[in-house]
Amino acid sequence: MPSADPRTDPELIDAANRGDPAAFETLYYRYRDWVVRLARRFTGNREDALDVLQETFAYWLRKFPGFHLTSSVTTFLYPAVKNLSLGIRRKAKRLVSDDAALDAAPAPAEQAATSRADLAAVLAALPEAHRETLLMRFVDGMSLDDIAAALGIPLGTVKSRLHNALHTLRSDPRTKAYFQG
Hints:
Structural class: mainly alpha
Oligomer: single chain
Distance between the termini: 42 Å
Number of domains: 2
Number of helices: 9
């Protein structure tokens, strides 16, 4: 792993556009963990997330020279990671028979073991668009404007989705404690 490069993302992108392979390598090391975490959230497993990591950076590398960043790197990469992850997930679903899918499905839990499990259950029950917006905001730390840009939706829609997701979390008895205090 290269040492910490003090250059900003735009400076590294300019250097990569000029043919500096070390600049792109620095961008890779700077964002690889974020890409894997995001891809794992979509794919559900580390092996597929690592495949998405490889495909994401191969996609980005093909944009050089001539790449121009108009937003943050995470805002640029988010749609690529999401689409590649969902593609891998769709492909995997086609390969699994219905019986195998039923056998692999977890048995319903009689009682949640921890409050973390409760939180996961409530999050899983959210509509996908609300869950995605909530995770982008609080797990990925993206601004509302960056979320809107990454998803290609109006800022008001982002705010509405986030509001509805938080309302659901606050209203559910399993997660209400997270909001008290």
